[in-house]
Amino acid sequence: MSSHDEAAVILTGNVRSDIIMLSSLLNGQQVPRPTVLRDKANEKLSLLTYISAILTIGDDSSPLAHSVHAVSGRINPTAIECLVCAQNTGQTSELTQTTAIPAPGELEEILDATNSTRGAELLKRWAQDVSVDEFHQRNYTLRDHLRDIFQILAHLRTCNRNDPAFIAFNYLIHRRAFRKLGWCIEEFLTAWGDSPFIVLQEVDFTTMETSHTVEISLASPEYEWLARYFPIQALESSEDIMIRVQYQFRIDFDNVLKWLDGFHRFFVRLRTIFPCPSRGAMNVPSSKDVEIGVNFIRLLVLIKPIIKIILSLPGAEAKLLGAETLQRAKKRAKKATGKAYNAIEDFSFPPPLSHLETKQRQEGTSVRAKDEAEDGDEDEAEDWDEDEADDLSDLVERDSASKAQTATGRMLLSMYSVAAWKVSVDYLSKRINKFFGMKLTVHFYGCSPAPKTKCDPQLKAKLDRLFPNMGLTNEQRKFAKMLNHWAKARVHAEAALMGWAFAQCEAHGPQFLTNDVAIAVSKKCCYLCWLLQEKLNQTSVLQFSLPGTHNGIFAWIPPREIPEDILFQLRDELLKVLREVDRSHSRQSYAASNDSEDDDEVPLGYLLSLKRGEGG
Question: How far apart are CA 484 and CA 16, in angstroms?
Fold first, then answer.
């Protein structure tokens, strides 16, 4: 018996169900590999990524995210062929005794995707009130929104660059994405317990030794709009208000607090236009509000250099990190006691962190969940869901991985996530002339639900023997959580597209597709999708490229087209991660038995995860 066969017998007896089971058990864990970002030099991937972003608009049932989707395509001098996988696909309601291979997916061409006449009509009518007709709806399915976007692109490629249709395109996208925009704004204004600009006003800026000057190119109306909020003088009348001029803006000890107050009022106004999604149905913003909101976002992008300077000043990093730590401590205390804490005095605040680094290195935890592996944090990590919300910050910031390592960097990423739709629309608008005369084809790929497999009653005992420190036998809750994640496992959209492309290449040869297959996703992909890309690239003439990974593990169903040898490799990698988690639990149990810290203090591992910026 081979090592693969032996391992399969020890676990479930089927490599597919092994992967589902192991990924369910590890749901929420984050593998300690470097975060990988999108290759921004890959023009095809960039184009598909921005298309993916404007497909992300939310709806009443899911305001934080739209249907998770992946976008691939083939681009050559005469044609653009776009392929979109609809969403992460779950399981059937009927149980089977053995793991069955999912049924083939269905490929559907969107026949009217190049209807430029309808695209022009969509832009012409964007400002009309929402109604029941096909042009104005509260909610759009991914398929319908995809059709509309390509019809609009088909029209825009025939327009002059100065045509008002390009501005209408920006307005239409932001009006449809109003829920998602509102969530981004609300999250930014509350993540630090207060507006981060209010938090930063507590910094002692008397240490500023020099002033800073920024040059920004603005038209007169843009300048005047900024003068309403920021410490700059109003202009005298200009002969040509649309001429862009280089203006110098000064940031110094005398006005830095006024700049921060201006940014705060700027975002509060933006929140009135795009409020946070509520439990009830929200009103679609009026056309006037959308126009104002888009102009606010446009100005926010222009003045980014100013907030970057303020965040680089001494004291800004420490103040934001302290606010982050306090919010996490409050959240943890509420989870433990059920009581909401509103002030530092209400509970024992964590001690300084600098003296704890040596002890953490000795403990040597290398595989972490979204927060450190303690009971309260495990619950949160295990409930981390791939479908929760989209992360669009990478579209706006060039170096989002390094920025995410600091509190000021995380603030900047959160602040400019609201600009993702504008950046995406502008990117496509600037390149739309390249599409002139090219054939546009759009396909929609739907993956069939996977058969749901019954769990072997003996599995708990097997897992407990293999991984005794996981506590699966002693703590029924942990095993029940694994079964819950197993029941919610999905075929991820990007994995489904990789499986489809791999099968097409095997059946028709590499000439069916270009060798480089870029796949954009509405969020960074998970650890298993990234691992699948690596394994397929090692064995296939096709070379897949994904937009980066956060290295998180989620309950994951293998696509039907993935060959068995690669499935075994994926299963073995999951086993390696699980063994490390098992050893990590053992070390934490030992450390807990020897821990002399007061019970009311925030635990060591949790504090250090905050210092490193790992928590969620």
Answer: 18
3-state secondary structure at position 125: coil
Q: Which residues contact 239 (CB under 8 A, 6 or more apart)?
A: none
Strand partners of residue 214? 249
For residue 556, the 8-state DSSP code is B
Give SS3 for 339.
Answer: coil
Residue linked to tokens 């807990």: 592
Residue 472 to residue 459: CA distance in whole angstroms: 10
| Rounded Cα distance, 553 and 482, in Å | 13
**Reduced to 3 DSSP states, what percent helix, strand and coil does the chain have, rounded to the nearest 5?**
50, 10, 40
pLDDT digits (tens, 9 = 90+) for 208-259: 889 999 999 999 889 999 999 999 987 766 555 678 889 999 999 999 999 9
d(CA 324, CA 436): 49
Question: 158 by DSSP, 3-state: which?
Answer: coil
pLDDT digits over 261-288, tens only? 999 999 999 999 999 877 556 788 999 9
Please report the sign of the dihedral spanned by the C-alpha atoms of residue 160, residue 164, residue 165, residue 166.
positive
Q: Is there a contact between 457 and 96 (Cβ–Cβ < 8 Å)?
A: no
Nearest to 393 by CA among 371, 369, 370, 409: 409
Asked if 361 contacts 460 with a C-beta cutoff of 8 angstroms, the reply is no
Task: Spell out the long-range contacts of 503-506 with Cβ–Cβ below 8 A and sequence spacing 24 or more.
Answer: 503/561, 505/540, 505/541, 505/542
**pTM value surpassing 0.85:** no
Alpha helices in 177-211, H assignment, sequence order: 178-190, 196-200
Torsion of CA 10, 15, 16, 19, to 10 degrees: 70
Give the span between the Cα atoms of 414 and 407, in whole angstroms.
11
Instruction: Give the single-character DSSP code of 614.
Output: -
Distances from the Cα of 309 to the Cα of 222, 313, 314, 324, 408, angstroms: 21, 7, 10, 21, 11
Are the C-beta atoms of 540 and 505 separated by less than 8 Å?
yes
Structure tokens at 105: 């997916």
